[in-house]
């Protein structure tokens, strides 16, 4: 199932898009979970980073589509945007938020369905990857596990180090360890959980990472960590 949001302040266009989605489901054997918002402010309030595709009207009364997309990108780097617009002048700004494309009003089904097909195919490829949703200031963020190099425990919080930046989130290390062990993560120290795919070497009781950072490798964790790393590397 693909989770999809429509953000459109004109009710008739929202209904048109819903009918197009239903038609696409029938013709292509897909299943969408659809939620409709009448303004950009509505979707960014308590945004949960759970949508796969967002159909976004650019010209809206309170918060326009471009500003809405920019705000969403702060929490969700992977959701797919398709802009619905009455002018190419606005749609061409979509590259700023990595939009897949745009459809001009009045929306023709053929053009819409072709772009939607690309979005669906991209979504299915992304679902083969793995993500975690974490609570951050202002909402929930979806983080690709591939981008995480390591996590470190700081009292009752975790600092997640990724190639996009660092995120401080609430929660115990133990719960995160249990969640991520099946996806190639292992503890090298009681306070550090490492993504084995980012390990480039072991130097002087430290784990060397692809980011050129080093994290400590404790004596009590060394054997278990090396066993996990060896198994991960196929040896």
TrEMBL record:
PROSITE patterns: HTH_LYTTR, RESPONSE_REGULATORY. Residues 132-231 form the HTH LytTR-type domain. The modification 4-aspartylphosphate is found at residue 57. The keyword Phosphoprotein applies. Residues 3-120 form the Response regulatory domain. Keywords: DNA-binding, Phosphoprotein. GO terms for molecular function: DNA binding. Pfam families: LytTR (PF04397), Response_reg (PF00072). It comes from the Bacteria. May play the central regulatory role in sporulation. It may be an element of the effector pathway responsible for the activation of sporulation genes in response to nutritional stress. Spo0A may act in concert with spo0H (a sigma factor) to control the expression of some genes that are critical to the sporulation process. This is Stage 0 sporulation protein A homolog. It comes from Lacrimispora xylanolytica. The lineage of its organism: Bacteria, Bacillati, Bacillota, Clostridia, Lachnospirales.
């Amino acid at each position: 199932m693909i989770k999809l949001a429509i953000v459109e302040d004109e009710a008739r266009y929202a209904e048109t898009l819903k009918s197009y989605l239903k038609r696409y489901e029938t013709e292509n054997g897909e299943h969408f979970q659809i939620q409709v918002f009448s303004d950009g402010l509505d979707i960014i309030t308590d945004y949960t980073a759970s949508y796969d595709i967002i159909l976004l009207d650019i010209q809206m009364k309170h918060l326009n589509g471009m500003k809405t997309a920019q705000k969403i990108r702060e929490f969700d780097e992977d959701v797919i945007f398709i802009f619905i617009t009455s002018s190419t002048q606005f749609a061409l700004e979509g590259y700023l938020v990595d939009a897949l494309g745009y459809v001009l009003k009045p929306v023709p089904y053929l053009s819409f369905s072709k772009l939607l097909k690309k979005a669906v195919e991209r979504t299915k490829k992304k679902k083969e990857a793995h993500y975690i949703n974490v609570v951050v200031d202002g909402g929930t963020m979806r983080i690709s596990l591939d981008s995480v190099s390591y996590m470190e425990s700081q009292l009752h919080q975790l600092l997640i180090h990724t190639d996009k930046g660092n995120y401080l989130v609430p929660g115990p290390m133990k719960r995160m360890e249990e969640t991520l062990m099946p996806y190639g993560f292992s503890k090298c120290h009681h306070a550090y959980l490492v993504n084995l795919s980012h390990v480039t070497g072991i130097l002087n009781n430290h784990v060397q990472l692809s980011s050129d950072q080093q994290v400590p490798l404790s004596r009590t964790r060394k054997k278990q960590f090396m066993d996990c790393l060896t198994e991960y590397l196929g040896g």
